[in-house]
Amino acid sequence: MYSAINSADGAERRNSGTSIDTGSILTTAERSDSAHCSDCGELNEQPTTIHTVHECKNCDKTIYRAPSAEGLDITEGDKVVIPAGALRISLDRRVSSGQFSRHGVSWMVEKLLLDSTPKSKEDLDSSLDTYDREAEEVLRSSELIGDLDLDDQDQLNEAVERVCDQRESPAFWAWTVLALSTGVREALESNDASQATWLMSRLESSRSMLIYRLHLEALIWQGYSTPGLETLKTASEIWDSEHDNSSEEFWQTTLTQNPVLLYQAFNIPVILHQGKAYLGGKKIDNHGGKYADFILKNSVLGTMALVEIKTPKAKLLGSQYRSDVLGPSFELSGKHSRHAHRVTIRLDA
């Protein structure tokens, strides 16, 4: 489910939890002479990354072997050691030291959502304690309130004011979890079963939102905003069946419904701002107006581009200009000339 360096039987594991810092790989160039055995040339100082341990038959010393670019070389009799801080398991590939399979992603999400939930009514108190610890850890590491002492009542009140309107922040949901957890305990102590049930339902929903903000939001957004194979497959099928279609209206509608196909023409982040955009130029008789097929907006800088589309049947090249050069067709150059005047458009966010 998770591809990393595999360990042999009897490997020594010293990790706890699912979020562990990655140690640096000790390369050949970084090894100092003092770190290597003068007899066999192997490492005789324990590295901080995943490594093997064995007794050298040549020098009778304990020798360590760190991973190379090809991975970890494990021989018979080696013990694989995973030091604390050498392995990070995360759904964020920028953080993780390995990669999940599709089933592994489901396994990881299930662990995040369900591992701390009570398995029986006797586990409720311990689960609430776990929820509290998770939430407090988020709050103490939050940039929103990291400068405040939450054990001081005045600063605690200020922390509440800072996070109460920050619903997109993990700190908001961590605070909500703590408040609801307290409410559940109070309802149980007063034997108010319906209140406890309602608050517990809200607590689980808020904790799910906390997990989403911490672990899933970036992953889901990446999948949502990036064209997947199904989108590209659909586009390919449309092209196969409609490549002789000379209706510009058809292609305008198709690209409007599948704007990600337009985005592929740019190496910068763009979004579809408007289709069939009016650019001005109408006379008093309501004729002569100019339109662009699409306006695309740079989602970072706010700049824009006018996009004119041509059907697959449109002629793009015109008569021969020189022996090896063809000029643009009349239809193509006419489209370009139509927007060759100055255009000023305000792109509101």
Describe the protein's topology:
Blueprint: E1 2-3, E2 12-13, E3 51-55, E4 62-65, E5 79-82, E6 99-100, H1 102-114, H2 124-141, H3 153-163, H4 170-189, H5 193-225, H6 229-242, H7 248-257, H8 260-263, E7 270-280, E8 290-298, E9 304-307, E10 317-322, E11 325-328, H9 330-338
Parallel strand pairs: 2-5
Antiparallel strand pairs: 1-6, 3-4, 3-5, 7-8, 8-9, 10-11
Helix pairs in contact: 2-4, 4-5
> Distance between the terminal alpha carbons, to the nearest Å?
42 Å
Q: Helical proportion?
A: 25-40%
Return the string of H and E elements. EEEEEEHHHHHHHHEEEEEH
Overall radius of gyration: 31 Å
Low-confidence stretches: 2-32, 340-349
The biggest beta sheet is recorded as: 4 strands, mixed
Number of helices: 9
Structural class: alpha+beta
Strand order of the largest sheet: 2-5-3-4
DSSP summary, beta strand count: 11
Q: What is the global morphology? A: flat
Q: If you average the pLDDT, what whole number results?
A: 76
Total number of distinct structural domains: 3
Indicate the proportion of strand residues: 15-25%
